[in-house]
Design brief:
By secondary structure, the chain is mainly alpha-helical. It has one domain. Helix content is 71%, strand content 0%. α2 packs across α3, α3 runs antiparallel to α4 and α3 packs antiparallel against α7. The longest helix has 61 residues. The protein is elongated, with a radius of gyration of 29 Å. It starts with a helix and ends with a helix.
């Protein structure tokens, strides 16, 4: 499978728990190059805990994303229904007013009055459903909806894990560097996606530029 085909593989919900052993195997296979040494057992255990935490957050985010999609669809359908009921109520109001002006028989006025009350009640019911917490409330989100978010949350933990056995560790952000390789390797375990190290490196550089720009603006203000 070439790199382009791998990048286009569909996202799957990651199902396996991330352990220190799986992280160790990942380091051996994808991360350690040159004179880089394997992190210690405690660091691998801690890093595995971080990755497993974010895996669970991602899974929960996907559930919430699906919920919000259903919620948005329900609200859109409810708006269509409310608009239709409002149009019906307006028509009923017009018919009742016309009948009253023309001194229609009492039975007709009573019937039109009852129909108008029903349309107003239906509109009030639709509006109350639209304001119900089950539709109006959106649960909080971490924004953990794709591998790009891993570029924000993982570099610091990765460097912390590497430092004890690699005291002079100063990773760059290139596509052949250990950070890009690490995030590209763990993304399938955390989000089910398969980004390339080059994509990760581009994201990391963009984040660093944004942070530098934000710092300059803060100093000017």
């Amino acid at each position: 499978m070439n790199e382009k085909q791998r990048k286009r593989r569909p996202r799957e919900r990651p199902a396996e728990q991330i352990t220190a052993q799986s992280v160790r195997e990942l380091f051996n296979r994808c991360v350690l190059r040159g004179d880089l040494r394997m992190p210690g057992d405690a660091e691998l255990e801690q890093l595995a805990g971080v990755l497993e935490y974010w895996r669970q957050i991602f899974i929960n985010e996907q559930i919430l994303l699906h919920r919000r999609q259903l919620q948005d669809g329900g609200l859109a359908a409810l708006r269509t229904l409310t608009n239709a009921i409002s149009a019906i109520a307006k028509l009923d109001e017009s018919n009742f007013s016309a009948a009253a002006r023309e001194s229609a028989p009492t039975g007709i006025l009573r019937y039109l009055s009852e129909r108008l009350a029903e349309s107003h009640g239906a509109r009030a019911l639709a509006e109350s459903v639209g304001g119900h917490p089950g539709l109006a409330y959106s649960p909080a989100s971490y924004g953990a909806n794709g591998w790009q978010w891993l570029a924000d949350v993982l570099p610091e933990d990765f460097i912390t894990a590497m430092k004890p056995t690699n005291p002079t560790f100063a990773p760059g952000l290139g596509h052949t560097g250990p950070i890009a390789s690490f995030i590209a390797a763990v993304a399938p375990l955390v989000t089910g996606e398969h980004p390339t190290p080059a994509s990760i490196a581009t994201q990391l550089k963009a984040r660093r530029k944004a942070q530098a720009r934000s710092s300059r603006e803060a100093r000017r203000s």
